[in-house]
């Protein structure tokens, strides 16, 4: 392959990746990306701001989930990796004050032309007000 074509393709891929990260950081929701095996490799700025975790870190994300839901989240994620469907309601800790809010976490796999998962993308949607409206008085 001509080296200049390779450089052009690499540059285009780099720009595409930067655009994707810019898009995810612009979302009002907390968002994430994971490898096909389930390892989270990216959280957007909204997630880092809410959880107080250092930008760029992905390890230890389960510690942000309320202890009462953490095992359910892990089991739902394991199941999703087999079945391809991920959604769960859980409380996530705010890093600034230690309080918890309810979120609907959803993830979808991106598949290649053969149906093989190549990446996961997901979001956390704030449902705290809705959950509080359902609580008995």
What does it look like?
- There is one protein chain.
- The chain is globular.
- It has a domain at 32-41 and 53-137: Beta-Lactamase (2-Layer Sandwich), CATH 3.30.450.
- It has four helices and five strands; from the N terminus they run αββααβββα.
- The chain has 137 residues and is an alpha+beta fold.
What distinguishing features does this structure have?
single chain, 137 residues, alpha+beta, Beta-Lactamase, 5-stranded antiparallel sheet, 4 helices, Sensor_kinase/Photoreceptor
Please give the structural blueprint.
Blueprint: H1 3-26, E1 30-34, E2 40-43, H2 45-51, H3 67-83, E3 86-93, E4 100-111, E5 117-126, H4 128-134
Antiparallel strand pairs: 1-2, 1-5, 3-4, 4-5
Strand content: 25-35%
Helical/strand content category? alpha+beta
Name of the CATH class of the domain at 32-41 and 53-137: Alpha Beta
Shape: globular
CATH homolog superfamily of the domain at 32-41 and 53-137: PAS domain
Order of helices and strands: HEEHHEEEH
pLDDT under 50 segments (min length 5)?
none
First CA to last CA: what distance? 69 Å
Write down the CATH topology of the domain at 32-41 and 53-137: Beta-Lactamase
| Spatial ordering of strands, largest sheet | 2-1-5-4-3
What is the number of E strands? 5
The radius of gyration over CA amounts to: 17 Å
Query: What would CATH call the architecture of the domain at 32-41 and 53-137?
Result: 2-Layer Sandwich
Mean of the pLDDT scores? 89
Query: What is the makeup of the main sheet?
Result: 5 strands, antiparallel
Catalytic activity: ATP + protein L-histidine = ADP + protein N-phospho-L-histidine
InterPro entries: PAC, PAS, PAS-assoc_C, PAS-like_dom_sf, PAS_fold_3, Sensor_kinase/Photoreceptor
Keywords: Kinase, Phosphoprotein, Transferase
Protein name: histidine kinase
């Amino acid at each position: 392959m001509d080296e200049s074509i390779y450089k052009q393709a690499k540059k285009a891929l780099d720009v595409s990746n930067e655009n994707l990260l810019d898009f995810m950081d612009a979302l009002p929701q907390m968002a994430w990306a994971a490898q096909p095996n389930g390892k989270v490799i990216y959280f957007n700025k909204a997630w880092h701001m809410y959880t107080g975790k250092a930008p760029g870190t992905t390890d230890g994300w389960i510690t942000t989930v309320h202890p009462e839901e953490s095992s359910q989240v892990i089991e739902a994620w394991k199941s999703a990796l087999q079945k391809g469907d991920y959604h769960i309601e859980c409380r996530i800790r705010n890093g600034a004050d230690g309080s918890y809010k309810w979120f609907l976490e959803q993830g979808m796999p991106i598949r290649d032309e053969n149906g093989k998962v190549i990446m996961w993308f997901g979001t956390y949607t704030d449902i705290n007000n809705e959950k509080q409206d359902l609580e008995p008085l």
